[in-house]
Amino acid sequence: MSKILKEVIISNEQYAKNFNTKRELQAAPIKKFAILTCMDARLDPAKFAGLSEGDAHVIRNAGGRVSDDAIRSLLISYKLLGTKEWFVIHHTDCGLEKFSNKDIDKEFNLDSKNKIDWLTFNDNEKSVVEDVLKLKSHPLVPNSIPIYGYIYDCKTGNLKEVFEATKAGTKFNSST
Ligand code: ZN
Predict the structure, then answer these.
(1) Using alpha carbons only, what angle is made at residue 4 by residues 21 and 53, rounded to the nearest 5 degrees?
(2) Reported pTM
(3) What percent of the chain shows pLDDT beyond 70?
């Protein structure tokens, strides 16, 4: 058994010992919101957003990008599990800002036929705006869901609003 595997199993046994009232939790998030953010190990949404088990959906991927799968999860989050507000949170010092798609292709020796869009970006604020707009303009995302854009600062732990993103994400169309 690897050292990590052992550590995880032991930690989980400890965790489950104090499970208590968490057994009563339902699948629908109590606080009715979802966060889409990066998988970066320095980010702990439960801590930086004050969440407990059962409070919110946290969807994570490399970059916190609005990939097809992030859209799939957010649509299920709202339609089947009742979330009413969404956050898109990128962060400073993100790996996806340091590499281009080409750089990552090279790591895998990918040829032009087997390209993957790694969803890298050059401008962090712009990438948050792009992602919020992508969600906002998706035909299955109702206009009634406000979408907030933020960047988490890995040096201070603060969330900094990307005003342009939030402005676009909270624009309501009176016809919906
Ligand atoms: Zn990142």
Answers:
(1) 20
(2) 0.95
(3) 98
